[in-house]
Amino acid sequence: MADGFDFTAPPFDRLRPxxxxxxxxxxxxxxxxxxxxxxxxxxLPDHLFVVVKGQVxxxxxxxxxxxxxxxxxxxxxxxxxxxxxxxxxxxxxxICHLLPVEDxxxxxxxxxxxxxxxxxxxxxxxxxxxxxxxxxxxxSLAAMRVAQxxxxxxxxxxxxxxxxxxxxxxxxxxxxxxxxEDGGRLGILTGADLARAATLRRLxxxxxxxxxxxxDVFGVDAEAFLYEAAALMTRHxxxxxxxxxxxxxxxxxxxxxxxxxxxxHGDALGGRIGAAGSVxxxxxxxxxxxxxxxxxVGQGMKAGYLGQVASNLHAQVMAxxxxxxxxxxxxxxxxxxxxxxxxxxxxxxxxxxxxxxILDGDVPKEEVAAFGAAFRDAMIEAGFPxxxxxxxxxxxxxxxxxxxxQDTLRDWAANPSExxxxxxxxxxxxxxxxxxxxxxxxxxxxxxxxxxxxAAFVRRFAAAIxxxxxxxxxxxxxxxGRDRRGLDVKKAGIxxxxxxxxxxxxxxxxxxxxxxxxxxxxxxxxxLDAKATEDLVGAFGFLLSLRLxxxxxxxxxxxxxxxxxxxxxxxxxxxxxxKDSLLAVRRFREVVRxxxxxxxx
Amino acid sequence: MLGGxxxxxxxxxxxxxxxxxxxxxxxxxxxxxxxxxxxGLDPKTAEILSIGAVRIQGRRILASERLDLRVRPRxxxxxxxxxxxxxxxLDVADGLDPADAVxxxxxxxxxxxxxxxxxxxxxxxxxxxxxxxxxxxxxNERIEVSALYYDWRAKQVxxxxxxDLRFETIRRRLDLPPIVAHDAYADALMAAMMYLRxx
Lengths: 601, 199
Prior knowledge:
A: alpha+beta; Jelly Rolls; CBS-domain; five-stranded antiparallel sheet; four-stranded mixed sheet; 15% strand; globular; B: Nucleotidyltransferase, domain 5; 8 helices
């Protein structure tokens, strides 16, 4: 049968064939003249508008807050709020697909990849609109229970009420779902059911609610964890759950209300890791962390927080393995380190291991070596590949007594080779995972004294910011359809920020591990100005989220992780934010070059 | 005046009184864009293979309520037509009986004016198919999008200049998005978009 338009642009390319057929058959086409306002603030839209041609602007009063062009959709805010918050005004004569809202909600409920596209987008948009870029108050990592989420009060409709009466009742209650009680059984009737009954199934308007409702209602206890409710919804492809309190129905939980903090899941997983009694059990629990990250991305959590949640879980995996494997002398008199992105709390996905060990006193070399090898292998089993640069406890250079570490610091100062600079960066980012953290404090205090106070050394250290030149043509990457190879966001953006900030922190003696925390401390000390800091924090968070998305996609396809992001797949808003972010990186490089007078090197 | 007369005449000739409503004035305010795929290019002999139609309501094309029919041809599928639309005898063998197809079209179109590209050809075929049933052709008003386009374009090109009326040229000039498929429904949908762009 004929299909008309083929809907191949993201995120429609994430739909299954049957879902795509539903979109192609269900969408009307609207023509809108310049100046028309197809949606106004306060409207309850019947359709999602997908722009085919022309331009539509989103306006808060007189201010244009967003612009929608080809293949972009509005108002996706209906995922969070039933009513539009802004006006949508046609800037340039537009043709739009009109996808029924009920179809759209059904797709987002059943297809997490499709939903994630809009939720992620929405979050950036909200963050941008509300001016809280990156700084990120709001998302609470506290445990959330169903009772803490605003569920709709239960609205019932009589089982013999007809379709029309049910629609009126739904409208009156301002909800997308009604409950039906019929002879002791409980059913649910959604707006999507009504629309389908009337249009697809062409049932007469007299059909009673009893014949339209679903009787396989899923309930959740008010005291259950929110993530359990979310899991139920995902598993069964439903958007509504009946909330029960002491056996009574207390409300209806809408999927939109669940979006937000699911961090409790993370805490529960942490508990499982901590309780694991064998390497195998730790590995199994560790296996769940990637799934958790994927879920949280799907729920719209920001990459910055995700990095913290995941890094924290990864650290718990290491700590548990350390407890299980380390001989007494190592466990009581040693400090296990996680380094690199894990140490900075910026490791959302499992990347190569970077770990080390500081020992209090002398432990026989064979004992340390045996532990190091066992730990390395256990980490590999838990999903962290071996480090190609051999930065692991199995390498005696990275697992040694404290006085040997102090000798190494003096060697680095005396001979700042490229290798040495890299090793300093790794140690500067170390965090204590298990054992005696005072050992790391002592080594790092020495690092700041010996190296941070050495202006010549810090300058050389800072110069590594130009290790990867920013490609002059990076903006060309961002034109739609121009780039199929992908942009290496790590080299182009993440590394210059991390390293520039690291160099400034080394010089200023700032003993914080995360890039964002270092940035804030630098701003407090007036090394950086407040506005530039905010821009950089925002840019950094955005680049991390791009890298995370690309990483999750690679994992989904069972491909190895690489730092490239396919810019051709980004939405216009994402491209705009990427452009802003890379420009902020370029300005920051200039600041660092100027600060350390690198052009005179 | 003359149109009114012809209409009255046609009304008298109507065979099946069940279709008297075809002559009522249109109260829907809607239009129907329609296109057929055929076995040939001569309206006297060509057979209909498929019919695509879509309603236009105000500034909206009701694509979700489309008509998309395969019709069983009575003769052999002509090689020329096959090359155009890539429908083979096999594809249309399980199509609708021509009389059933006409009834479906009449129900879908109702009293609404018809819109199409070179509608004359499609309408002549539909008339021929309708005649055994009704005794007359379709009485609906007809709107030719290539004529609308000609008037629009004539204001832009110098007097006497050549105006290309090919379907694809019109689509590009009107800056309409391409539809990859080339079947009756896709062409009806495109003609509907041309109509809305030009009005």
